[in-house]
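To make this tangible, we now present a fold written out as tokens:
***
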Amino acid sequence: MKNLVLTIFVLFGLAFVSQAQKKHTIGKKFGGGIVFNLTPDGLHGLIAETQDQGTCNWHKAQEMIANPANHSITGKAFTDWRLPDMAEMYKLYQMKKIVGGFTNYYYWSSTENSKDKAQVWNKTFTSGAEMTNAKCAMKYVRAIRKF
């Protein structure tokens, strides 16, 4: 148990053990993927899968994410993967070289167009451009999860 701090508290004659959480770093392999965003304390953040889950229309994206066969070996161990919203997609694009494995094409987000619910925001990992497309269009899927 590397870098783990244990503290023992005694209260009313009973001993309690507290385990300090380990800080994480951007680019670290953890939780089935790569850490690409952290809270200021380094204890929580976002993890991206190391591979795409495939291409599909927006309606099928969550189904592709839920299928363990579409994940890396370590990613298969987790069931809380989801599409990133546009703010998370922006952060993911900023860290695309650290996360790796992106195709130079558009990726779905979970953010629907506020004016036209038949459209969803997506981002290209070529230039970072953002646009909306009909939910029936074909785009890549890259899952993320919180820790």
